[in-house]
Recover the amino acids of this structure.
C-alpha cells in the first residue's frame, strides 16, 4: 500500500513565503536577447562617427541605419548611440562621440 494514508490532499504550495509565488510579489525578469555582437581593436571615434580601419562594419546587414548600438570597452564613448549612415569603414552616430583613437578590444552590440 502507499505511504499516504490521510484524506487531505496537499495543495502543493510551500509554507515559506519566499518560495511561494502566491504569497510574495512575483518579479519575472527576462533576458535581453540583444542583437549582433562585434568586437575588435580597430575601432576609433572620428568626426562624429565610429570608424573601422579593417572595414568590417557594414558587412552583410549586421548594422542597419536607425538601430541603437551600445559601445563597451572603448577608452571613451562607452554608451548607447543611434546609428546613422552605415558603410564598411564607418557608422555615423547620434549623439556624436568625442574623437578617440583605436585601442583596447571594443564590443559593439545592437540593442533591441
Amino acid at each position: 500500500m502507499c505511504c499516504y494514508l490521510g484524506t487531505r490532499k496537499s495543495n502543493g504550495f510551500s509554507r515559506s513565503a519566499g518560495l511561494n509565488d502566491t504569497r510574495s510579489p512575483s518579479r519575472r525578469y527576462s533576458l535581453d536577447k540583444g542583437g549582433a555582437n562585434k568586437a575588435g581593436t580597430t575601432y576609433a571615434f572620428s568626426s562624429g562617427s565610429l570608424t573601422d580601419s579593417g572595414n568590417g562594419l557594414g558587412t552583410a546587414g549586421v548594422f542597419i541605419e536607425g538601430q541603437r548600438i551600445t559601445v563597451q570597452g572603448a577608452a571613451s564613448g562607452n554608451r548607447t548611440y543611434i546609428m546613422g549612415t552605415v558603410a564598411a569603414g564607418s557608422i555615423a552616430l547620434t549623439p556624436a562621440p568625442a574623437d578617440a583613437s583605436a585601442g583596447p578590444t571594443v564590443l559593439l552590440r545592437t540593442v533591441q
The CA atoms of residues 96 and 106 lie 17 Å apart. The chain has a mean pLDDT of 76.
